Structure formats: C-alpha cells, structure tokens
Amino acid sequence: MLLALENVGHRYGRDGDWLFRGLTIDFHPGEVYALTGPSGSGKSTLLSLLARRSRPREGAVRFTDIEKVSWVFQNPFGSPHRTALDHVALPILARGEKPASAEDEADELMSRFGLQSVAQRRFGDLSGGEAQRLMLARGLASRPSVLLIDEPTAQLDRRTAERVDSAIRAVADPRTIVIVATHDERTRAACTKQLDLGSPEGPDYP
Ligand SMILES: Nc1ncnc2c1ncn2[C@@H]1O[C@H](COP(=O)(O)OP(=O)(O)O)[C@@H](O)[C@H]1O
Ligand SMILES: [Mg+2]
C-alpha cells in the first residue's frame, strides 16, 4: 500500500498564486504525518488531493492499493441521541463483522482513546474533547487505508487540546496512513513525521 506525491503543485484559477509546488513524499502506513503551515497555506487543499476529491494542477498523486479513505473534521458531528459506543460499533458492523466481535473491537478502540467511562453516554452529552477523540476512534473503526484529520484541535481549549494530542499518538495503526493537518505546534509534535507547507523558503519535507 502506498500513497505518494510526485512533484505536486497546486493553485486555484489560471493565474492564482501557487499554494505549494514540488511536493514529493511517500506516505507509509503506521506513521502519523503532520501537515503544517499557517492558515491559507493549502493544508485542506492538499488533503482533498489526497482524498482524490480534486486533481493537482501539476505533478501526480499515486494511489497503490488504497481502498478506503476516511476523514475526521474540525467540528465533531454525530447522532446526539446515540451512545458514544454506537458511533464506533456501527462502522465495524458495516464492515461485516459479527455483533460480538464488533463489540469487542469497539470496546478496545474506546479504551485506546480513553473513552471507556463515557461509552454509554449520549453523543450530545459528550464534552468537546471527548467528542473529538470519539471521531478519531470512529475514523479507525472503518479501517481505512488513509485517515485524513483536518485541524483536530482548532475548536478546543488548551487543556482539552492536550488530551486530543495524546490521542493523536493512539491513531498510529499498521494498516493505516494517517495525515493530520494542523497549525498547532503541539499537535505537530505528537505526530511521527512532519511535512511543512508554510516555511518562507517554500515547502519543506523529510
Ligand atoms: N475551491 C477553492 N477555490 C478557490 N480558492 C480556494 C478554494 N479552496 C481554498 N481556496 C483558497 O486557497 C487557499 C488555501 O486554502 P486551504 O487549503 O483551505 O488552506 P488551509 O487549510 O491551510 O488554511 C486559501 O487562500 C483559500 O481561500
Ligand atoms: Mg484548512
């Protein structure tokens, strides 16, 4: 499984400014990539290229054995009356797992994200940080090849954001390429690799 950028550049419109150019990187499962840069540097744009929602203006995005791509957005959304656990169990059932093993896997994901004590709480009664961690657990529950996470801590206060940052570490998964767009230095530090779109001398990558 490989997701790769080859000399990718993008801009909107015929003569708009380039948001980024010359991006070349291979993304591997098991790693958590921080995609950083100030607001407007093109982080969300690059995520949509990686999700095949649009094509880059130059260069190529290569997809090898990438089946499912999942997103986690900045604002958690769920069904207010359903339990937290249901939000994680449903995508597992949707993959075709039997109810008993779906429940075991959902329990395991809830503890991995520190959510066991709120498993039976209604989504509508979760705090902002709990809801965001639940979105990470739900994102992994569908077992995507690629999990794209856009600004997971943007709406959170500092302390809550710190708990989400530790949860970012828990998202690393041998089956999944995880990419987190963030302008938060601490979220960046929680990731295993960094790709910066915002440095003044142009994009910077490992
Ligand atoms: N569909 C679009 N059409 C034209 N311009 C866009 C579109 N989407 C984003 N932009 C512009 O491209 C720039 C980068 O946006 P974005 O990728 O959302 O950056 P970031 O996520 O880093 O804040 C911004 O100036 C934004 O206004
Ligand atoms: Mg954005």
Polypeptide structure, described:
The protein is an alpha/beta fold and about 210 residues long. The protein has a domain of about 60 residues. The chain is built from six helices and eight strands. Helix 2 runs parallel beside helix 4. The chain is globular and about 50 Å long. The two termini are about 20 Å apart. About 40% of the residues are buried. Bound molecules: adenosine-5'-diphosphate and magnesium ion (MG). The site of adenosine-5'-diphosphate (ADP) has 10 residues, from helix 1. Magnesium ion (MG) binds next to helix 1.
Residues in β-strands, percent: 15-25%
Ligand names: adenosine-5'-diphosphate, magnesium ion
Largest sheet, in brief, is:
5 strands, parallel
The first-to-last residue Cα distance is 20 Å
Q: Report the mean per-residue pLDDT as an integer.
A: 93
Helix and strand string, N-terminal first? EEEHEEHHHEHEHE
- The secondary structure category is alpha/beta
- Output the number of helix runs: 6
Helix content: 25-40%
Net shape: globular
Uncertain stretches of 5 or more adjacent residues: none
Order of strands across the main sheet: 5-6-7-3-8
Q: How many runs of DSSP E, i.e. beta strands? A: 8
Radius of gyration: 17 Å
